[in-house]
Prior knowledge:
Blueprint: H1 8-42, H2 47-52, H3 56-59, H4 62-73, E1 118-120, H5 121-124, E2 130-131, E3 137-139, H6 140-155, E4 161-165, H7 170-183, E5 211-216, H8 230-238, E6 244-246, H9 253-256, E7 264-267, H10 270-279, H11 283-288
Parallel strand pairs: 2-4
Antiparallel strand pairs: 1-3, 4-5, 5-7, 6-7
Amino acid sequence: MRLVQPCGNMVRRRQRRATKRFGVFLVVAALIVMGIFFLLHAFPLDIGKAADTPDHSRIMTGQAQQALQKLEENPSLPATGGADTGMLPEGKDGSKEDGYLVLVNWDRPITSERPNHLVALSDVLSDAVTLEDSDGYINKTAGEAAHQMFLAAQNEGVGRYVINGAYRSVAYQSQLWQAQLKENPAYGREPFTNPVRAMPGNASEHSTGLAIDILSVDHDTADDEYGNTHEGKWLSENAWKFGFILRYPEDKEQITGVVYEPWHYRYVGKQAAKEIYESGLCLEEYLRS
Length: 289
């Protein structure tokens, strides 16, 4: 059988159709690639972070969940007044001393900036106490007041005290919080019914430099029993004279959301400390009164 060769025009038409189809394919492929690129940038996937960091908002409910969501959405919100800048806020009557009444808790986050007016613990306390961290820091006024307090205790034959901690950065406090969540993902779910010991990074008042954890050489474990020791009792009865309050009392856990901590003291100034001590209020209640 004799084969009939297609004419030149037919060959050229076929070539043009093939070229057109290939061009359409290239356009469609380019659009698909561009679409994928846009989606990846508009909705980034952070698989590693999702695997390593618990999502607080999914495991918490009620008031605590709302508070934590507020902290996470606004990590740079200043605490009441602005302790992050070193400018201590005014208190109820605007006095200078009331400036040390800055409130940091579940509902009052602090920024991640390092506060001003910090001094080394070794510069203000080393001759009066034992320091677990000689490189630690504390607010200057609070440190000087604590120094007078520990010297007074020595004169009464009380001590020797141990400083377990003072200023902590938000970043370091966040590590402590994440460690608790890693051990127990439900940690802090409802702190006002099940109080916690560790706070989220920007909800800890240690970041102000005004808080100090005080133990003793004879009892260097942070537990409830410390409150029954000679040193623990002396502090609870006398710290107010030097401007310090027991920040997390045993009967105020449902208000503070923090367990009873007989070792955790907070500088608020002498007048406020006296009023808080005599009234039996915690800091949250005092500031609302």
